[in-house]
Specification:
single chain; mainly alpha; Endonuclease Iii, domain 2; Endonuclease III, domain 1; 2 domains; 13 helices; elongated
């Protein structure tokens, strides 16, 4: 599932993040032409908004989507669970996943990219990495050795320098670590990451989907995902976060993959590519 930044001032607006990013890896506010897509809308029908009783909570860590066979399992489930989503799945290539960034560096990139263009974020990230010679050398103590002034000299704002230092401090004192992040259940991970300055709910959701490849994440406040669900089900207005939970419940336990296809649907701007055959 390749991550592509798209937090622009007119694009994605994360919810409740201290500094709402305007460039990230996937858009939340992608403008598109409103057109009816054949076989995707529900005419004169209202979606069933009765949410089934959820199963008891569990701290079991599900296999990441990057595990062998997990994407195929997700697509098979979504094909059978949601006929409308199945049409979208058949239209786009299956998600591709990137596994070449550590959680620590990925979180730093998330902080750097807030409120700036893709081009600017990429340039600053490259300058940041060059300070250490190689991504593998970007460790908490090494980052803390750089003063806020030094970080500002490569284009990182004062507030973002504070956020990066706070993240690095939490790594240095053991509150967070790459290994513990990988092993945490979703609820604990959410609580710990949102305690870091500059990281809010939307950023955590994107990190869980595109870095950790957690299979069942639904960013209910993400405008791009909400627009996708609106188009998919032919709704007159944007679904609320609570409606999102109900409408997308059938996607469990692979709501991250459903989310990915909502981004693709919105990016298509109403004009879908030729259908492809994906696990029909």
């Amino acid at each position: 599932m390749k991550r592509t930044r798209s937090q622009t001032k007119s694009n994605s607006t994360p919810n409740n993040d201290p500094k709402p990013p305007t460039k990230t890896l996937i858009s939340s506010k992608i403008p598109f032409t409103v057109k009816k897509i054949p076989n995707l809308t529900l005419k004169n029908k209202k979606p069933n908004l009765h949410l089934p009783t959820p199963p008891p909570s569990t701290t079991t860590i599900a296999k990441p989507l990057s595990s062998h066979g997990e994407i195929e399992s997700a697509l098979n489930h979504l094909h059978s669970a949601d006929p409308l989503l199945s049409t979208i799945i058949n239209t786009f290539p299956s998600p591709q996943l990137s596994t070449n960034t550590t959680p620590f560096l990925s979180l730093i990139k998330t902080l750097i990219s807030q409120q700036i263009s893709t081009k600017s974020a990429s340039s600053i990230e490259n300058r940041f990495i060059s300070l250490f010679g190689h991504p593998s050398s970007i460790l908490p103590d090494a980052v803390l050795s750089l003063s806020p002034t030094h970080l500002r000299q490569i284009g990182i704002s004062g507030p973002k320098a504070t956020y990066i230092h706070d993240l690095s401090t939490k790594y240095a004192n053991g509150f967070l670590s790459d290994s513990s992040i990988i092993e945490m259940d979703d609820e604990t991970l959410y609580e710990k990451l949102t305690s870091v300055k500059g990281i809010g709910p939307w950023s955590v959701h994107m990190f869980m989907i595109f870095t950790l490849h957690r299979p069942d994440v639904l960013p209910v406040g993400d405008l791009g995902v909400r627009k996708g669900v609106q188009k998919l089900y032919g709704l007159k207005g944007l679904p609320s976060p609570s409606q999102m939970e109900v409408l997308c419940h059938k996607w469990k336990p692979y709501r991250s993959v459903g989310t990915w296809y909502m981004y693709k649907l919105v990016e298509a701007k109403g004009v879908l590519p030729n259908p492809t055959t994906v696990l029909c």
